[in-house]
Amino acid sequence: MDPNQRIARISAHLNPPNHLDQMCDDGSGLRRVGCRAKGGSPGFKVAILGAAGGIGQPLAMLMKMNPLVSLLHLYDVANAPGVTADISHMDTSAIVRGFLGQSQLEEALTGMDLVIIPAGVPRKPGMTRDDLFNINAGIVRTLSEAIAKCCPKAVVNVISNPVNSTVPIAAEVFKRAGTFDPKKLMGVTMLDVVRANTFVAEVMSLDPREVDVPVVGGHAGVTILPLLSQVKPPCSFTQKEIEYLTDRIQNGGTEVVEAKAGTGSATLSMAYAAVKFADACLRGLRGDANIVECAFVASHVTELPFFASKVRLGRCGIDEVYGVGPLNEYERMGLEKAKKELAGSIEKGVSSVKK
Ligand SMILES: NC(=O)c1ccc[n+]([C@@H]2O[C@H](COP(=O)([O-])OP(=O)(O)OC[C@H]3O[C@@H](n4cnc5c(N)ncnc54)[C@H](O)[C@@H]3O)[C@@H](O)[C@H]2O)c1
Ligand SMILES: O=C(O)C[C@H](O)C(=O)O
Prior knowledge:
Bound molecules: nicotinamide-adenine-dinucleotide, (2S)-2-hydroxybutanedioic acid
GO molecular function, one term: L-malate dehydrogenase (NAD+) activity
CATH class of the largest domain: Alpha Beta
Number of helices: 11
Largest sheet: 6 strands, parallel
Subunit structure: Homodimer.
CATH architecture of the largest domain: Alpha-Beta Complex
Organism: Arabis nemorensis
Distance between the termini: 60 Å
Family: Belongs to the LDH/MDH superfamily. MDH type 1 family.
CATH superfamily of the largest domain: Lactate dehydrogenase/glycoside hydrolase, family 4, C-terminal
Number of domains: 2
Catalytic activity: (S)-malate + NAD(+) = oxaloacetate + NADH + H(+)
Radius of gyration: 21 Å
């Protein structure tokens, strides 16, 4: 092919020059960030908001490896160009584009099928997730307003803490914009399930890949309620094991925050969990059957407007929200504690948008 034609073909896929203007001439033509490799498969368009952060970077890397993704938009208020240039050199088929700062947010979101939000500050030792509310509520609100405007039909995965409040914030923003679809908004609680599977496998000497622990309620302290009576494969725990496991699962995040000693919270296991959940959402959107995962969603399972439980994912997002199933006395008591704390966190999120 004529070199000029080749350059023109490549250029057709490029970012506008104000994004990532990284060009190099290797003698055979121009290569720029944002080109689709030959053989790139049709797939879904995914945006990560907060893509240059501790979670965002490994999440971006893992999503670039996902064959269901055809276009990956990486948005952040800092360092998006460097992360995008780096990730874009991976020889997988997804096109990667970077977007830096508020002025490029709308472009980052336009046309997206799935938006994943890990933007926001993480905890330091001694803090609760709710201590992040003042900063992260505003970030999630701004991002949600842009989603309502630019990709109102996208599935949204909220990672930013406190999830028990940020999901109600996003819902309230969407309601105000007239775009709220409860099937499309999910708080990511997959890390609680990932931890529960790991810790149960350790105690029972099982392969964690074969363990499935439902974790319901929410994503903070006592609101994280593992249902050990429903573990698959069926396991019989002593009361001491139940108390050890429940405590460790509820405080898994704090365990990492303390080990990281002021440098942040879980990032790598979170990126793994986020990708596991995002992949489930994409398989659902593709029409795969029986995709069931736990998530914090708009719900009628309890009297609360939001609650984490198993959901079945489908072509429209959430096809079905499952109830908690039969609980034992210990779990019933845990549920009451969880609901009490959840009610306050949900209300805090909702009322912050109404102010
Ligand atoms: N749901 C969960 O299970 C779970 C697990 C771990 C962490 N988290 C939460 O995820 C969030 C991110 O954690 P992290 O370790 O990646 O933090 P981080 O500080 O390493 O990264 C956050 C990123 O967000 C970006 N950012 C800040 N404001 C933004 C805005 N307005 N728009 C776009 N990007 C913005 C920052 O520039 C940074 O790159 C925290 O709130 C943390 O508590 C949730
Ligand atoms: O604990 C945190 O602050 C981060 C996250 O929610 C986690 O569970 O690891």
